[in-house]
Amino acid sequence: MSDTLHKLARADAIPEGRLRCAEINGHRLLLAKVDGQLYCTDDLCTHEDASLCSGSIHGYVLKCPLHNGCFDVRDGRALEEPAEDDLRSYPVSVRDGDVFVEFGDDD
Ligand code: FES
User: Fold this and answer.
1) Contact (Cβ atoms closer than 8 angstroms) between residue 13 and residue 97
2) Which ranges of the chain have pLDDT less than 50?
3) What's the gap in Å between 98 CA and the centre of ligand 1?
4) Distance CA 64, CA 13 (A)
5) Does ligand 1 have an atom closer than 6 angstroms to the CB of 63?
6) What CATH number does residue 23 fall under?
7) What angle do CA 33, 101, 6 make, to 5 degrees?
8) Residue-wise pLDDT tens digits, 40-69
9) Which of 49, 73, 89, 90 is deepest in the core (most CB within 10 A)?
């Protein structure tokens, strides 16, 4: 099934270097802005049941609040144990100041 564009937020409502939670069809997502660029990954850590939105971001490194596993927010790649499995990441675009994420209805 093809991905659908979902409007999640206003671009100016996502401060630089902060994390924002969002949800599409009950699926929790994380939004972040680094160097003016927006990124979207799953919110749920791949290690255990922790919300990464409650963690922190340092440059492009997203740190889990539970066991300090780290991911690259640009592509969801796991960088530091105990996180071993990558996060899913989703394409983000901005139109007229609105943030859209490509997310499949079967995701
Ligand atoms: Fe995220 Fe363990 S739950 S590193």
Assistant:
1) no
2) 1
3) 31
4) 23
5) no
6) 2.102.10.10
7) 130
8) 999 999 999 999 999 999 999 999 999 999
9) 73
Structure tokens at 11: 């671009």
Asked whether residue 106 is assigned to any structural domain, the reply reads no
Atom of ligand 1 nearest to the CA of 46: 1
Q: Is the CB of 67 under 6 A from ligand 1?
A: yes
In a domain, 35, yes or no: yes
Find out whether the beta carbon of 29 lies less than 6 Å from any atom of ligand 1. Answer: no
